[in-house]
Design goal:
This protein has 13 helices and no strands. The chain starts with a helix and ends in a 5-residue tail after the last helix. Its cofactor is Mg(2+). Pfam families: Glycos_transf_4 (PF00953). GO terms for molecular function: metal ion binding; phosphotransferase activity, for other substituted phosphate groups.
Length: 302
C-alpha cells in the first residue's frame, strides 16, 4: 500500500490502477495473514461466515474504509488528527483486554502521527499525500477488523462490545459519513462519485469561516463523542447501535448543511461589493472566486 501511494504521488495513477493495486495489497493481507471477519457474532442472526464470503466481505470492507480515509485528507492536520484518536483508543482497549501486541502497534502509529502533526498542523510544512493517507487508512481498517475479532473471542467478564461493528464504525465515522454523503450528493447531480468537488464536510465548515485547525478540532470532537457513545452503550447489540449511530450522524449532517447555507447567505448579504462583482461577471466569475478562496486556504477539493 505504501508503494502504491508513493507511485501515485510521483506519477498520478488512474482510479482503476489504484483499485487494482489496493486489491492486490489487501487480498494478500486478508488471505495470507488471515485478517478477516470470521463471524458476524449474532448480528442479523448470523454467526460463523462461509470462508469465501468472509474473504470477499473483509476485502470489500477494507477497500471501502481505506478509500474513505483517503478522501478525508483535504486539510492540514485533519487526517492525522482523526487517525490518532482512533489509534489511541484502540491501543488502550487492546492492552486493557490483554492483546498487548496490537496495543503496541496502535500506539506506535499514534506516536508517529503525533510527530508528523507537529509539521502538518496549519499552516503545514509537510503533507502526507496518498502515501500517508492510504497507509493510515489501510492500517486503521485492519486494526478495526482485528478489534471485531478480538472482541468476539473475549470471555464474558472482559470489557466486550455487544455491538462490535458499531464500535468499529465509530473509529472511522467521519470518513465513512463524509464519503457516503459526498457520493450521494454527486449521484443526485448526475456526476461521477469520483469527480472532485467541494462538497466534503470540511469544505462546508470552511465556508462557515473556520480555519484548518478549527475544522480538525471540530471533526475530531465529533469522532470522540461518537466513540464515547458506543462505549457508554456497549451492552446494546449492533441491531440497535448501528441505526442509532447512523441517525445521530445524519441529523448532524442535515444541521450542518442548513447552518452552512445560512452562514453563506449572511456572508453574501454582508459583502455587497463581492456580490456586485459576481452579478457583473456572471457564473464564470463566481466559480473563479470560489476556487480562489479554497486555493488560498490550501484546501484539497477531492
Amino acid at each position: 500500500m505504501f508503494m502504491l501511494g508513493l507511485r501515485d504521488d510521483i506519477v498520478e495513477l488512474t482510479a482503476y490502477q489504484k483499485l487494482i493495486g489496493q486489491l492486490i495489497a489487501i487480498t494478500t493481507v486478508v488471505v495470507l495473514g488471515d485478517v478477516r471477519f470470521h463471524s458476524f457474532y449474532g448480528f442479523l442472526g448470523i454467526e460463523e461466515l462461509p470462508l469465501w464470503f468472509s474473504y470477499v466481505f473483509t476485502v470489500f470492507a477494507i477497500i471501502g474504509l481505506t478509500n474513505a480515509f483517503n478522501l478525508i485528507d483535504g486539510l492540514d492536520g485533519l487526517a492525522g488528527s482523526l487517525s490518532v484518536i482512533s489509534f489511541v483508543v484502540l491501543g488502550t482497549w487492546f492492552i486493557s483486554v490483554g492483546s498487548v501486541t496490537y496495543g503496541f502497534i496502535a500506539f506506535t502509529y499514534a506516536g508517529a502521527i503525533l510527530s508528523f502533526l507537529m509539521y502538518n498542523w496549519h499552516p503545514a510544512k509537510i503533507f502526507m499525500g496518498d502515501t500517508g493517507s492510504l497507509v493510515l487508512g489501510f492500517s486503521l481498517s485492519v486494526m478495526c477488523v482485528k478489534f471485531v475479532e478480538v472482541n468476539g473471542s473475549l470471555p464474558l467478564n472482559s470489557f466486550t462490545f455487544n455491538a462490535p461493528f458499531a464500535a468499529a464504525a465509530a473509529f472511522m465515522i467521519v470518513p465513512l459519513y463524509d464519503t457516503l454523503r459526498v457520493f450521494i450528493k454527486r449521484a443526485k447531480k448526475g456526476k461521477s462519485p469520483m469527480a472532485a468537488d467541494k462538497s466534503h464536510v470540511h469544505h462546508f465548515l470552511m465556508r462557515m469561516g473556520f480555519r484548518h485547525d478549527q475544522v480538525a478540532f471540530i471533526l475530531g470532537s465529533v469522532k470522540i463523542l461518537c466513540i464515547l457513545f458506543v462505549f457508554a452503550f456497549h451492552k446494546l447489540p449492533d441491531i440497535v447501535m448501528l441505526p442509532a449511530l447512523a441517525f445521530i450522524i445524519v441529523i448532524g449532517g442535515i444541521i450542518l448543511d442548513n447552518l452552512t447555507l445560512k452562514r453563506v447567505k449572511e456572508i453574501v448579504r454582508d459583502s455587497p461589493r463581492v456580490l456586485a462583482q459576481r452579478k457583473y461577471f456572471g457564473v464564470r466569475k463566481k466559480v473563479k472566486i470560489d476556487q480562489e478562496i479554497f486555493q488560498n486556504e490550501g484546501a484539497n477539493p477531492n
